[in-house]
Automatic annotation (TrEMBL):
Belongs to the short-chain dehydrogenases/reductases (SDR) family. The lineage of its organism: Eukaryota, Fungi, Dikarya, Ascomycota, Pezizomycotina. This is Oxidoreductase dlte. Pfam families: adh_short. It comes from Fusarium albosuccineum. Residues 1-22 are annotated as: Disordered.
Length: 361
């Protein structure tokens, strides 16, 4: 039971007997999966927060069923979720997730976070020593590893086939591989155009190929997930020293919007495509080995552990896209990207009508 100072006069929490379906004996009919999706933080820590925090987060949520109609509707649902989180073992976010770019930075940290919360992972990267170290650290019962370079576009099909054959219970693919390079077009003699091509392939083209390769398998799952680690710079390209990186992430964003709409129009309801817009994060993406014009670049941005927790929280909430850090305001109602998304959705209908007579039946 919560301390009296946090219950604010609420009735004592009723006893509950866990049931396999995620419900409990005290009569709340809110689906287990719905509670999990609406959690304001990782489910295993939800019960440690003050009740006022839950009241703020649940205040506008609709009520599907309540045990006591006389109670405030948000408080009733919070009491239910607190009991649920305290009395039941929460389901993991995914059954098994494939994490591309899993040998360092966001990929390695998020793979470890998933394992800590009950998901199995398959980490993918180029560096075999780091893959082996990850599996050793987390145990072969929780993690496996595959060495693969996502810039090998012609090999992605065979790679995907091998992964799903070895792990048929895979229900999530996290597309996280990424590089960032500086290009100064005011000094064209300094440009290394091969590096420009590598950046586009890593950040964008490989994501397209991976999506095509894993969609057939994910469509066979009861619920399949494609999670893309994008960048706020793909929305607002404010850092002009990385024009190609910004463009690659903008292309990725447009691709995700369009494919998500295609799946929706085709009636595919068991695939969720989620785009995450990180801020700068303290990883080796910015270190001097990769960006020699920087000094102490690994100190730039949000601490990795903080970002990892926020990304997990966002995925638990269940939005199709979300930002962390400065980009959050762009996606809020009335924000720049929110308005652009509305224009995008309105434009689809207009174009569909105007193109109808030109499209082959």
């Amino acid at each position: 039971m919560l301390p009296p100072s946090e219950t604010e006069g609420a009735d004592p929490l009723p006893p509950a007997t866990p049931q396999a379906s995620g419900g409990s004996e005290f009569g709340v009919a809110l689906p287990y999966s719905t509670c999990l999706a609406r959690a304001p933080c990782p489910p295993k820590s939800v019960a440690t927060l003050p009740l006022n925090h839950h009241r703020r987060n649940f205040a506008t949520s609709p009520v599907e069923a309540v045990p006591n109609p006389g109670s405030p509707r948000n408080l009733t649902r919070v009491r239910y979720f607190l009991v649920l989180s305290q009395r039941l073992k929460m389901a993991p976010l995914y059954n098994k997730a494939l994490v591309l770019g899993g040998t360092s930075g966001i990929g390695a940290a998020f793979a470890a976070k998933l394992i800590a919360d009950g998901s199995k992972v398959v980490v993918v990267g180029r560096r075999q020593d780091r893959l082996d170290a990850f599996v050793e650290a987390h145990g072969s019962e929780n993690a496996s590893a595959v060495a693969f370079d996502v810039t090998n576009l012609t090999g992605i099909g065979a790679f995907a086939e091998a992964v799903v054959k070895a792990d048929p219970d895979l229900d999530c693919v996290i597309v996280n591989s990424g590089i960032q390079r500086a290009f100064d077009f005011a000094k064209p003699e300094t440009l290394e155009l091969s590096a420009l091509g590598d950046e586009i392939t890593t950040n964008y083209t490989s994501a397209v190929h991976l999506t095509a390769a894993f969609l057939p398998h994910l469509r066979k799952q009861s619920q399949g997930h494609l999670v893309y680690v994008s960048a706020t710079l793909g929305l607002i390209p404010s850092m002009i020293r990385t024009p190609n990186y910004n463009a690659s992430k903008a292309a990725l964003h447009t691709f995700i919007l369009n494919v998500r709409s295609q799946l929706r129009e085709a009636g595919v309801s068991n695939i969720r495509m989620v785009e995450v817009f990180p801020p700068a994060v303290q990883t080796e993406l910015h270190d001097e080995r990769h960006q020699p014009d920087l000094v102490n670049g690994g100190e730039i941005g949000m601490p990795l552990a903080e970002f990892t927790d926020k990304m997990y929280d966002g995925l638990v909430r269940g939005a199709d896209q979300f930002a962390i850090g400065p980009g959050e305001r762009f996606l809020e109602e009335g924000g720049w990207e929110h308005q652009r998304t509305q224009l995008y959705e309105a434009g689809q209908g207009a174009l569909k009508g105007s193109l109808a007579k030109y499209l082959k039946k």
